[in-house]
Amino acid sequence: GSVVEEPDGTLLPTETVFEAGASTQHWMGMRFDNVQLSQGDKVAEALLSVSSEGRTTNRVLFETAVVTSDFDQGFEETGISDRLSAEPSVRWYSNKLSEGDRINSVDLSALIQEAIDSPDWTSDSSILVGLRRVGGSATNLITSHGVRGEGPILTLFKQISGSAGTNIPLRTARDEIIERIETLPATGNTPLV
Q1: Dihedral sign, CA of 85, 54, 126, 37?
Q2: CA 42 to CA 77: how far, in whole Å?
Q3: Count of alpha carbons within 13 Å of 3, Cβ hemisphere only?
Q4: CA gap 43, 110 in Å, rounded
Q5: What secondary structure letter does DSSP report for 192?
Q6: What is the pTM of this model?
Q7: Which residues pair with 4 in a beta bridge?
């Protein structure tokens, strides 16, 4: 799920759009459960993908930070800026954006690796990712509460032991489908097949 933190620290847990540009102190926090990583695993590649809701005239400079969390704790309990203030982060540029563009981060594997190497990491841990705009054009991003299928996605590749250069995705298509189904609102008359 996603939560948006306003510059004054107010948390908006059901916001559908993150106004990346309202302030450099405006964060979107994302929680990814069921990561399927154990201590000792090596992350070969990690990419965050988010969807743009608007156009930009220039590139956007983003900052991303990662922390680990107990299974039942997210940003809602502690705030995003408070949790991420002392954490390592990566800055990266997007291209100019059109509405509906998917934005892919730079490789975040070093940040994810640091999280799973921490002594607090267990099989029940979640990865919490914070994202904010720190420069360039302002834009709006779709949160996990926004348009179906357009919310943030964290794609992880694990290096297979003993086979340098070979990576396997940590999430299967089944995992992705289940995650998307779980984000659907519990309203309507769509039959389950």
Answers
A1: negative
A2: 29
A3: 19
A4: 8
A5: P
A6: 0.75
A7: 12, 28
Residue 71 confidence class, pLDDT cut points 50, 70, 90 = very low
Q: Percentage of the chain surpassing pLDDT 90?
A: 8
Q: How far is CA 11 from the centre of its chain?
A: 17
- DSSP secondary structure code for residue 130 in this structure: E
Distance CA(138)–CA(134), nearest Å, equals 9
> What phi and psi, each to the nearest 5 degrees, are found at residue 80?
-80, -55
Distance CA 142, CA 52 (A): 6
Average pLDDT over residues 163-191: 62
Reference 70, options 81, 83, 85, 82; nearest CA is 83
52 C-beta neighbours (distance < 10 Å), count: 22
* pLDDT given for residue 73 in this prediction: 57
Distances (CA, A) of 33 to 7, 134, 179: 26, 27, 10
How far does the chain reach from its first CA to its final CA, in angstroms? 25
Q: How many helices (H) and strands (E) does the chain have?
A: 4, 12
Nearest to 81 by CA among 5, 149, 184, 15: 5
Helices (H), the chain: 75-78, 80-84, 109-117, 173-182
